[in-house]
């Protein structure tokens, strides 16, 4: 800081000047400042020494007391986190589909219905268990994310079209050898779920969606289990997800598994599969396997990494084309070849949801000998789009089982695929009737067992029994065609009944979850409301302070204890005390009412705990009526929060949430500009209007970064990546991180200079080190682009990737390790010097005094911002920098309009946080999770770091908002402010309330609209986002906001003394 | 240590020279023509809107463009017939009439024709700024420019033109209006109603009802006209003289 600026202007809150002769300074010195020893006060040495000792003792006592208070506060928020987790858990267990897994297994000897005819080897694996077998062996090639339109001719030049023509070619040229049909996956379209469906033949349950990172073994009856029990040998090559699902199933030595999550690597898995598969097809290896599974990931990874619209996708599909051609030339006549996609991909190459593009995969079956038939001549041509004649993915299960002669897995709900049993002429109606009958009988048997296991009478409607009887009648009268149709209808019907059945929700649990959330919300609202005794923060009177200090120094015991100091302790104690009888009552009640579900004890404990805490708070003088808004700002907070939460009942408002957020942000800016007109001081009035305008304009600028969801089309244009069907940044976007590195520190400086806080560590850390970190992040993205687009063909791709990863690690280390260390050890951003006052006396001046708390704390959210900018891709990094600037403007607006006690500050932070979420390329849809961000600082998946990195990428906006939250209580606050911890905690209460309202609303709407067409596309993902955000905010509130405030207060109080 | 200087001190009295604290409501002339005109104005305006609605849905740009001169004429007629011109009221408010004293003809009053002309110029000048405000709220930036511009022109004519006519460029008055500290009257009420109506008009846009009238900027125009009419009526009657923000140093 230039010395000239230190000398201008009159004493104000920004710096503190104390004249040496002033009597007040004497007290001030005694009480507050150890650095003022040389201020030259003539005092009796002995007395001063005694006072000094006493002062030190008092300081130490206050420090311990503060520590205790802090722990109670943390305990309070941990309890809140548990309550929220309990509410979410309860709702989730009732909302996400549940299905009973049966232990029964099919066996060759026990067919579900008496077998009609005899054939050679009937009832044995050698001849075919329930149906004559057609093939000895099968090669199943899974091309991950092979969308149907990749395999059929399309009249355009898209890189992903017409690059893999072989499947279509063969199906058209020799329909007796090959069949190509659309293959519809059941959502969720994640590989793990799909593999479960593809092997068990049953429908997945939604709750499994979360376990994609760590799959667990399937213990349900499945194809592989049937194969293995029949003594067949299975070889696996490729994606290691199979290994976690089927541990110990695969032939050792010749099976080769590869890491499945390394989406940056397009070739290792594929090359491995290709290399090892061909030799196994040679004659001498034939005896070593019966089922050969090859799972290739290149197409999926190319989609995740680049999006389908990229040359890498063309290359990948061409490689697949060549590979499949090669296999067909090698296999023999007794081997069935199946090539399929386990799911599709959306326009950006991601998947997980249930949009059309994600569920439409391709299925191709091939036999060297003429085998397949069509019952109608128009079925010979493969469907032009996936909307025509699709087959369900689970249909593959009975088809493969019957063709290979093994029993159909017990839980199967699929039906046989027509082409495989229709005979070469397409008229084998008796055969079709037989296979559909055996399949339908298996489904019927499964239904019986399922209802028995559930302990309920079969709720099958009568017409289903009718269909079965009709079918059996046709079978008896040998009307094969009718029998086939009826059995098929029975299978379709049962499937749709099961889909409905497993979409059956546990309403009491859902209601319990919502109730817990609701009660916790009322509690939190009361907690964060502004009571009468909450204005302690505003009472910053130095005179009063000194008197108090003097009294304390004289009489140790008279330390009065304001209510805020014991608030958290009494709440936590009440909550714990309330939980015990609640648990007992809940358990008793669940036994008495015959629910017999002990989890309700947990719910009752949570409820009673919150109610007890609420009672304790009301006993301490808070009133429920306090939560009603009393000012324009209060009403504004309510309107923003409630209207959006009401809007979540409509799919339209949920889909357009990003635009609505901008609308609200701008509205706030306009209201604050209008309010600023009322500020008396002309300078502050101008500043108020200025920051409001900046706030509005920044929001609009950030809004240019968007990634549209499918439902927003055609009214939305994505700008986040190079194109709508890409997941890499455009070249011009690489400039953004450099602009951020240049400008962000300057912007931060512009907020620190006016309160004289550009002192101490500030200039070095923010101006130099932090900026260097930002430049490193920018360089990372240049290296990434160079690697993606192969700018330097001479450099190996590996080298570029390595440099990038180490650079990213270094950046993160700078932000988290060095940044945290600096934050913990840094003294306040103040500067102390002595100068002669105009009267000639020595004067001590402390620059940055008025913002001692805020300026220092700012370093913490800045560090987290730095890490998030690196992890959010170039466009997202720019958006986050703008969002942070908005946060700084918000702090100024809050300060200028004296809003630190109002709820509007935290609510706006909540809106800004969500806004940041949408502006960093996210949407409330599972497919918008940027899994590839896990590989920014790592080469492969490593726990727990990979999930943490993905979480930082996903919730960057909200995390930064929570990290910045304490600024509402700390910005422009000097070291003498009391109850800083409690003010922060109260502001955190308002912010968490905002997210809790959203979370509860999305829960309630998802539960209420559980039969809505858009449930899994719109409402359910938004509920999941709301729940995840709430828990993230709770956690970050404890780990960053509260912990940061403690470190900050310790440092400030070491220098200025403890105030409370 | 006192708080930052920005914090308004409740004990500090409002500065006397702040003219916004003294801003008086704009009173409609008491002549029968003016009193009839204030209602006729609304009828004509709403009648025009109702008659043009289906054409607005069909082709917003053409309709907004065709009606713009009509709206301008309506507003000019209303202002000249009903509203006191800028500068005339301040002198009136400053002089209290003694009982029995007859109001003198104001010879020195400002020229209403000049005021009308200047107000129209100001309305035209402020239209791009209003356009910008729409964009900041999320309106399309590069597309729909004619729609946005015409919408802004309509908003300026309805909400701002009467204020320009009644207050001119008096900075104190505009500070009061900008800070929502002005007393309600037909002009300020109409302005606040129009802005609020336009704000609320955005609500139906995202809904997936696939209706023609959901396209930009029809709902905003509807909200604008409805809000203006309602605000004008309320501001001129029940709310007359009341203030949203009661004093300059209100703490919130």
List keywords for this structure.
heterodimer; A: 1060 residues; mainly alpha; 4 domains; B: 252 residues; 58% helix; globular; disordered C terminus
Counting DSSP E segments of at least 2 residues, the number of strands of chain A comes to 11
Which chains share the greatest interface?
A-B, 51 and 32 residues
Total count of strands of chain B: 0
The major β-sheet of chain B equals:
none
- The Cα radius of gyration of chain A reads 34 Å
Radius of gyration of chain B: 20 Å
Distance between the termini of chain A: 32 Å
Give the overall average pLDDT of chain B: 83
Annotation field: number of helices of chain B: 8
- On the 0 to 100 scale, the average pLDDT of chain A is 86
Determine the N-to-C terminus distance of chain B: 21 Å
Q: What class do helices, strands and sheet pairing of chain A give?
A: mainly alpha
Instruction: Provide the number of structural domains of chain A.
Output: 4
**Lateral arrangement of strands in the main beta sheet of chain A:** 5-4-6-2-7-8-3-9
Overall form of chain A: elongated
Q: What would you say this structure looks like, in words?
A:
The complex is a heterodimer of chains A (1060) and B (252). Chain A has 1060 residues and is mostly helical. Chain A is built from 34 helices and 11 strands. In chain A, the strands form 2 sheets. An 8-stranded mixed sheet of chain A has the order 5-4-6-2-7-8-3-9, with helices on both faces. The longest helix of chain A has 51 residues, at 45-95. Chain A is elongated. Chain B is 58% helix and 0% strand. Chain B contains 8 helices and no strands. Chain B has helices spanning 32-58, 60-82, 88-94, 112-136, 145-167, 171-178, 186-200, 218-236. Chain B is globular. Classes of the chains: A mainly alpha (1060), B mainly alpha (252). Chain A binds chain B through residues 12-14, 16, 538, 540-542, 631-633, 650-653, 655-656, 659-660, 662-663, 666-667, 673-681, 684, 687, 696-697, 699-700, 703, 755, 849-850, 895-899, 902, 972, 974, 976, and chain B through 1-8, 12, 14-15, 135-138, 175-176, 178-181, 199, 202, 206-208, 245, 248-252.
